[in-house]
Amino acid sequence: MGETLLSGLVRAGRRVDHLLVGEKRPERARELEERYGVAVVSNAEASRRADTVAIVVKPQDMGDLLDEIAGELRPGQLVVSLAAGITTAFIESRVPDGVAVVRVMPNTPALVDEGMAAISPGSHCDEQHLAEAEALMSSVGKVVRVPERQQDAVTAISGSGPAYIYFVVESMIEAGVHLGLPRATATDLVVQTVFGSATMLRETGSHPVVLREQVTSPGGTTAAALRELETHKVRAAFLAAMEAARDRSRALAEGS
Ligand SMILES: NC(=O)C1=CN([C@@H]2O[C@H](COP(=O)(O)OP(=O)(O)OC[C@H]3O[C@@H](n4cnc5c(N)ncnc54)[C@H](OP(=O)(O)O)[C@@H]3O)[C@@H](O)[C@H]2O)C=CC1
Ligand SMILES: O=C(O)[C@@H]1CCC=N1
Description:
Helix 4 links the parallel strand 3 and strand 4 (78-81). The chain folds into 2 domains: 2-151, Rossmann fold; 161-253, ProC C-terminal domain-like fold (Orthogonal Bundle), CATH 1.10.3730. The chain is an alpha/beta fold. The longest helix has 22 residues, at 183-204. The chain has helices at residues 2-11, 26-36, 43-49, 62-69, 88-92, 127-138, 151-159, 161-178, 183-204, 208-215, 221-231, 234-253, and strands spanning 20-22, 39-41, 52-55, 78-81, 100-105, 115-121, 141-145. The site of NADPH dihydro-nicotinamide-adenine-dinucleotide phosphate has 21 residues, from loops. Its EC number is 1.5.1.2. It catalyses: L-proline + NAD(+) = (S)-1-pyrroline-5-carboxylate + NADH + 2 H(+); L-proline + NADP(+) = (S)-1-pyrroline-5-carboxylate + NADPH + 2 H(+).
């Protein structure tokens, strides 16, 4: 996710001499320097020199990382965390008083500038800090502001969401192959169908039920398929899956 954000900032025209990357593995540091022309430095140096520090380590590594950089941070600086589950209160408790913290939940379509990010302010954040975080994430897609109490649900919906869509795509391609289509044909059909459907949702603004009804001819093929999806409780499965993701996000906050 960190490289996705970095690549988006570079694509969006941020000056590479205004970006610093903290990376601990030397071979990975060289790779990032060569690929993007950015300076890769220690986490401590990046934290000392940057006005905005974006943290994109796993939630389980967050405590150690904050302990490593806390001594370099100063009041007024902005820390933007992209980690699932980790609360602004947790970060604020480990950095100097007055450091502003914004919690962000991004997603991987940021790699093609079609990301969806939700941002929430911590307790020392002013409008300027929030606007800075918004500008950062706007480089790679759409941004909404949400109260922090909604971030676990956001994580379950849009943070993990791309994986559910890929799962559906994968399942439809497999079904196409079962029905006798060449795999390449099935893949083209499914990918364009998902892309076209998403574009219709965004461009018409119509409710998905309305769009679904337009496809569903009386007594036709779609009605036959949808009845099977209901029989197999796919709607209930989606609800259970997203509750599980929300609960996992909450548990990450507790360090498990
Ligand atoms: N993947 C996704 O779709 C999304 C991820 N996120 C969040 O983004 C964060 C990263 O997730 P993801 O990219 O999937 O995970 P990855 O494991 O791919 O990336 C985490 C990176 O952090 C590096 N890292 C760990 N400790 C340090 C350290 N002390 N200093 C510098 N780098 C360090 C790791 O390096 P190494 O490999 O050497 O250990 C690794 O490259 C998580 O908090 C996740 O919740 C949020 C939304 C979506
Ligand atoms: O699976 C995860 O924990 C991360 C957070 C959201 C998407 N990926």
